[in-house]
Here is the input.
Amino acid sequence: MSVIPTVDSPARSPSSALNGGRRAPSRRPRSRLLRSLAALGVLAAAAVILSFAGFMRSIARIEPHKVDPAAGIVVLTGGSQRLSDALGLLASGHGRRLLISGVNQKTSREEIARIAGQSREKLECCADLGKSARNTIGNAIEARRWARENGFKSLIVVTSNYHMPRTLGEFAHVMGDIGVVGYPVVSDSVDVSRVWTDLGAFRLIVSEYTKYVVSGVRRSIEGDPEHSRLPTLMGRQKPVGPQAIERAESRDLR
Here is the structure.
């Protein structure tokens, strides 16, 4: 004989019967969580895209410009055009000495002169070779040591335009009371305006943007990178090696 449910004895659904009379947990909280996570993902992606677009616009506007003379000039290795422009600044009296930072330990002055299209004599005057820097953090540390050794309070930093934002950030982080001005180099091999059609340029700029963001986060939580373990942990090597700066034979320009 079947039992007719009454008001005091409501009918149970098949699912509640299988659960021993307990009601199945609601799926609404889980769906809300998934929607919230999806919304956060969309917002994060939009923030990254807007940040990258801003980075692209900023480096596209970075072009060579006139700079006031400084005590010293620092050029980061990475292309013959950087060296040529830095030597041109030195020859025009924009600095008393030049530091070529990040030189390979086995690279000689003759080879650097050949790459830059200059004579060795121009390098002998007042161009010092920095062979201890292993990355951009190391460039900044090496340049600071060099500036302090020479008593310089102002520097012109020469590097590629797409590399300039991260470079200036690293230099400002370590220099203290030493003033730094950037002199960007626009390379024919990397056309920022064609980044959306040139796969090689796109990969380079994306890589540099990623390093720029990571660099900014690192600087916000560390002190002096020369005495911090964070750059070593992140880069898997110390930013600077034990090599001393190879000084030019002659005195600096006055």
